[in-house]
């Protein structure tokens, strides 16, 4: 490699590493739920408000995720799946990650409060649940920690509703609950696939604590309740009947896949369920927004 291209390549690698601290796909999905929640809740969406909301949420979620990865760097170092991440691999130093995460978090929270104090309060609550309650306090102590991580995951959707209406209502709570109930299909399937990794890292993952069958039962029940919450949202929002049918079909597909994995478990089906969970949440949120606009 030529000498003049080496610094450019190193800077590109550094930018990619810092970007990976935000877990872009996960952050984008949570941001999407918040933005869709705002759009489906507002009779006349304000484009500048939606833009600043998206920026505030992205910075808050991405910054919180970077700080989570800072706190979890010792766990990541002991897990084969995560050992090559920038912090455990030593490509980013802890103080750099702390500075990066803090700047993003404080900027996002400040922008969220500047936009609307009620919106900012919900965003800050999600931040606190994720960083302090889930990661710093409970993750290393109990398998039930995922419930609090799920609460944090539902806050972007609730915040979008609050920004549009200026209050918390039943639809907002149902949207947050639907995401909370989406978490098992997203997290527990991953924990089953990498159970040995979690055991090595001394993280009390659900499959290691309660066994694979109990984990599959929880995933199946959570998928059923998730479908129910989304249908209840659709009913309260009075979405178009065609959209209602598509939502029902999506929900039943996830319930059926989870039930099949419970009755005839396989590694391939478990991984398919993990992959399908994010697509299901994305499409369901999008359908709710479309259903209100039709």
Question: How many H/I helical runs?
Answer: 13
Q: Count the beta strands.
A: 0
What percent strand?
A: under 5%
Order of helices and strands: HHHHHHHHHHHHH
Q: What are the low-pLDDT stretches, counting only 5+ consecutive residues below 50?
A: none
Binned, the helix content reads over 70%
SS-based class: mainly alpha
Sketch the major β-sheet.
none
Question: Span from first to last CA?
Answer: 56 Å
Mean pLDDT: 94
Gyration radius (Cα, Å) is: 20 Å
Shape: globular
Summarize the structure.
By secondary structure, the protein is an all-alpha fold. It is built from 13 helices and no strands. The protein has helices spanning 6-20, 24-41, 47-71, 73-78, 94-115, 117-138, 145-165, 170-193, 195-200, 206-210, 212-237, 241-263, 267-293.
């Amino acid at each position: 490699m030529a000498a003049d291209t080496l610094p450019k390549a190193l800077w590109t690698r550094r930018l990619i590493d810092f970007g990976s601290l935000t877990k872009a796909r996960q952050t984008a999905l949570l941001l999407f739920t918040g933005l869709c929640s705002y759009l489906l809740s507002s009779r006349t969406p304000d484009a500048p408000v939606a833009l600043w909301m998206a920026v505030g949420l992205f910075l808050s979620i991405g910054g919180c995720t970077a700080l989570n990865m800072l706190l979890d760097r010792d766990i990541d170092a002991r897990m084969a799946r995560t050992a090559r991440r920038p912090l455990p691999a030593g490509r980013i130093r802890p103080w750099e990650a702390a500075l990066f995460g803090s700047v993003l978090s404080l900027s996002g929270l400040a922008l969220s409060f500047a936009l609307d104090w009620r919106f900012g309060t919900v965003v800050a609550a999600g931040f606190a649940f994720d960083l302090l309650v889930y990661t710093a306090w409970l993750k290393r102590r109990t398998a039930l920690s995922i419930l609090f991580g799920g609460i944090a995951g539902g806050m972007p959707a609730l915040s979008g509703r609050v920004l549009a209406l200026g209050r918390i209502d039943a639809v907002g709570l149902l949207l947050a609950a639907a995401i909370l109930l989406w978490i098992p299909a997203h997290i527990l399937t991953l924990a089953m696939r990498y159970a040995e990794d979690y055991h090595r890292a001394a993280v009390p993952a659900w499959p290691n604590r309660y066994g694979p069958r109990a984990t599959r039962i929880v995933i199946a029940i959570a998928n059923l309740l998730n479908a129910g919450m989304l249908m209840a949202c659709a009913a309260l929002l009075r979405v178009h009947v065609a959209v209602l049918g598509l939502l029902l079909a999506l929900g039943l597909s996830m319930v059926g896949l989870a039930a099949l994995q419970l009755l005839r478990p396989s590694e391939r089906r478990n991984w398919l369920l993990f992959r399908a969970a994010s697509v299901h949440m994305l499409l369901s949120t999008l359908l709710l927004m479309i259903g209100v606009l039709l």
